[in-house]
Each structure stands twice: as C-alpha cells, then as structure tokens.
Amino acid sequence: MRIVVLAGGIGGARFLRGLKQAVEGGEITVVGNTGDDIHLFGLKVCPDLDTVMYTLGGGIHEEQGWGRAGESFSIKEEMKAYGVGPEWFGLGDKDFATHIVRTQMLGAGYPLSAVTEALCARWQPGVRLIPMSDDRVETHVLTEIDGERKAVHFQEYWVKHHATVPALAIIPVGAETATPAPGVLEAIAEADVILLPPSNPVVSVGTILAVPGIRQAVVAAQAPVIGLSPIIGGAPVRGMADKVLAAVGVETSAAAVAGHYGSELLDGWLVDESDAGAVAEVEAAGIPCRAVPLWMTDVDASAAMAREALAFAEAVRAR
Amino acid sequence: MRIVVLAGGIGGARFLRGLKQAVEGGEITVVGNTGDDIHLFGLKVCPDLDTVMYTLGGGIHEEQGWGRAGESFSIKEEMKAYGVGPEWFGLGDKDFATHIVRTQMLGAGYPLSAVTEALCARWQPGVRLIPMSDDRVETHVLTEIDGERKAVHFQEYWVKHHATVPALAIIPVGAETATPAPGVLEAIAEADVILLPPSNPVVSVGTILAVPGIRQAVVAAQAPVIGLSPIIGGAPVRGMADKVLAAVGVETSAAAVAGHYGSELLDGWLVDESDAGAVAEVEAAGIPCRAVPLWMTDVDASAAMAREALAFAEAVRAR
Lengths: 319, 319
Fold this sequence. Notes:
Chains A, B: This is 2-phospho-L-lactate transferase. The structure is a homodimer. In chain A, about 40% of the residues lie in helices and about 20% in strands. The first copy, chain A, is α/β, with parallel strands linked by helices and about 325 residues long. Chain A has a domain of about 190 residues: Rossmann fold. In chain A, the strands form four sheets. Chain A has a seven-stranded parallel β-sheet with strand order 5-2-1-9-10-13-14, with helices on both faces. A three-stranded antiparallel β-sheet of chain A has the order 7-6-8. In chain A, strand 3 and strand 4 form a beta hairpin.
C-alpha cells in the first residue's frame, strides 16, 4: 500500500510513528512542510523535516517533541557570549551538526530534496521524506506588536512571542512561485491513500497545499484523502493552532477545520470521540466523518488512529 | 611602547602571554598568520588567529595549546554519524561557535580583519590582533604520498599526516596576490620594536612575510627587529618545524633559521643558552645574537624571554 502523508512537525511526526507501526510493509511517502524553515547563524534550519526525521529515526527528544535526545547547548552559550542572536531559538549542539551538513550540501549545489535524502541515509526513518518544495518558502505572520503592524517570520511569532501577539494574516512568502519538489506530485498521483495527520491546518498542511500544484494533485488523486482533526473539544491538541486559525477566519473546532480543507479535498474526516456531536455537521458539508479516539498519548494510540484512518479510506473507497 | 609581533599559533600565543606580562601598559599589535586557515564543513576556520585570541583571552585549552578549555565534541560525533569528513580535524562544539559567527560575518560582507576585531570584542585579548591579510591565503604542501606527488592543504599535511610524509615544497597559495590587512603596514612602520616570536619560521612567520609588502615594511621599519629561535639544540621547541625547514632547504638549527630570516630583516637573534655556541656563527652572518633561556615553561619564563628581547632591542637601537 502506497501512503502519502502531508506532515508538519511534532503532530505529524508522532502520527507517522503510529502509521509505521500500523502498516508494516507499506510504502510511506511524507511530504514535509518547509514553511517553518529559517536561516539562523548563516545556517539553513528545517524544523519540521528534522522533527520527522529525528522522531522516526530514533533521535528525537521524546518529552519535548522536537530537537535531539541527550542534547547539549555549548554553541548556544557561546553565541550569547559573542552577543550573536537570536537567543529565543534553541538550537542544540547535535542539532547544529544537522544544519551544518545541510547548509554545506546546499552550498555545494544540491537541492533540499537531495540533502534531505542524504540526511535520511543516516536516520533511516523508514519513510521517504520529501520537502514540499526545493524552493525557499517562508511563512511570515502579519502581527500587531506594540500597536504597530509588522510581518515577522513564523518562528519569531511562534517561538519568540508564543503566538501571544495578534496574528492578522499568515503569508507563505515565496509559495506562489514555488514548485513541488521532485517526486511530490508523482507520489500523490500514485498513492493508494492520502492522509492529513493532526498537523496545524494553516501553517503546516496549509503551507504544503499552498505550493502551486500540490492541492490540485491531491484533489485530482484517485486515492481517498482522509484527514485527522488537530482540534479536540474546541482546542488544539497541542501548540497554538487556534491563533493561526483565527488569523485565516476559521473557528477552532473540528468541524470548522474540515470545512476549511473543504469537501473537494477531503474524502473523509476523523474527529475525536468527544466531538461526536460534530459528525453530522461535517457530513452535512459533504464530508464523510467518523468519531474515533484522537489523543496520541503513545505510539499504540497513534497506530490505532492510523488504522482508523486507513479503514475509513477503505470504506469511502468502497462507496 | 608600540610593539608589533608577527605570530603563528601556539608558540606565538604563549610568547605573547609572556610579553603582555612583561610590558604592562605597552601597546601590542599582533599580525597573525592566516596561511593555516581552512574551510571545513562550509565554515571558515582560522586556527592561528583563534589560538592567539583564546590564549590571551583566557579560553584556551592549556595543556593542548589550541582549542577551548572544557570543550565537548557533540558536533564531531554527529558529523561522523552523517559520514561527513574530514575526521582528522578536531573541532569542538565551543570552537564551532567561533567559526559559525566568523563565517556568518564574512558572508555578510565583513572582511576578516573586521570579523577578528568583532570576535576579540568578546575575548579582550589585550592586544590588537590583525590577520596578515583579508585575502585568502592557504599554505599547501607538496608531498609524496604512496609514491605520488600531491599538493595537500597544510592542515592535512600537519594534522592528518603529522608531517610524516615527505614535504618537497611549501606553497602559500594566494600569497603573491594578497595585500596586507588594513593597519598591518601602519603598525609596522610606527612600531618601536618588532618581534618574531618562536613561531614556525616557514609556515607561520614565513607566510606572513610572504604577503607582498610585509617583509619590505619590516625591513624598512625604524624599529629594531628581534627574533627568538624556535629551534633549541637542533630540534623544534614544539611541533614539526624541522620537516618544513627541510622542505625549504634550511637546516634545523638556531643559526640556520637566523640565516633564513637574513641580516637584512633581523636586527637581533636570541638563541637558547644551550645554543650559546651558535652566537658567533650568527654574528658572523651580520646578525647581533645573544644566548638566553628560551624554554616557555610557564608565563613567567615567557615574560623573561620577552624582557630579554626588549632589552636586546634597546641595545641594538643604541648602537
């Protein structure tokens, strides 16, 4: 079975770990969000790709959900001593190595997709991880800080300000001229199932879909497209997705996110069992919906979610 | 008193620490060798400048003589895990931070001299440290490895091969078209004393003098030029200077090194007291010479050497 997953960072990575357990033997292609990418200290940092790679490759800091296990922070301290910022973005020493290797390969002329493949040769994530695009796309957020409107890098909004400043708009800078990385459209076209994990629907999955050609390919794909709600009981499972949903005028509810993706895109939508009341609303919008447990408390729980998604795909395919 | 020192790495740095103690209140300008510089992992590494900066700034690994005290090696291990070499050049995590800051500033358009000044703003070495040139100069060594002639980067010859392969020639690539960094020629012209510490006369001091204009400026300077022999009893004080001396056809002796610098350049030459027998030979070549203790066993010993050099300068000035 060929499965394509459009994934952001932590939520996507944890779902993928469950999916791998659920479909041993399946062929999983992950189209990773690169809108979170940031250039720091002259290095190219790809937080979402790395979170997927580290999580599936066994190198992730489990509790934190991002960064490396057993990490040290010598470089961060040194940077501070040199007065070189930003201080708010925490890169560990081991993590730096990844960015150094990546930056060196990019500088040598390799596209990000080839670099990601090279990094994965070490991590053996057990999936094919492809960045959504080899082109530079950077999500910026139009904020109002101290009464002044200012567009800041998504990471500045998210990590520095913890999404506590008003977000007026989400702008995936460069997305409109980006092209999908090699293999992305082919994987989508040839997929047996396409999954939207409980990643951020705006700045993760939304950014991937903003690359011209990707949304169209997903809509046109033969495969059923099944999404899992990142909203449970009116609140994000983790992170601050409610803030960026508000910025694009979408209510923080499982049903509203389904509506945001739309019936053209989704062939099925899974909401948490506590949101069973939303099933009728989602189905009324033309999207088949089921209520199942959606808390990724551990790998087994994530695997159960993945099995529900795959079973749902079979069901909608049979209709 | 304005003192200019043409310095390599460990030997130069240790001498400078003594000199600082000897001339409290003096104004010391260090023209640092950049021929050892190497690009590793996409980063610009300046071993000699850093050794001077760390040593005088209190950050050096005392026993080792290079690199940072209390260093960790997470990145090095990660690089190995990624299969990215070279493995033979040991960069610690703290040290990496210096190279990251330097590379970022160079990438932003600052010349190496400005970058060095910025790094020194943190380290406060108590001297003005200027690279010999802002231009890229890289010492290469023509070797014979497994029967094949091959030019390798000096660091590869020195660190990887430990100078155990034959060195047929020393080539300061780029030196002939390099220009002295801003301030170098002015400092030399305005100096009261110019010192050549017991650094490697070929690949450290020799490379500095190979930058067009620097040797001429030292020869033309009003100030006495006093050198301290890096050879004691027919062997290098440290390192493998004998190997590179042989490559340029110079015998490994205190007298031969004096002759290599030449009476045009040197106004005085200090040999170790154990080499007192060489004094007559050096003076016969037209270079005033004294025998004094030249083992830099600790800072006090280095300071005593510096005082001897300064006293010698006064003596030759009075002639």
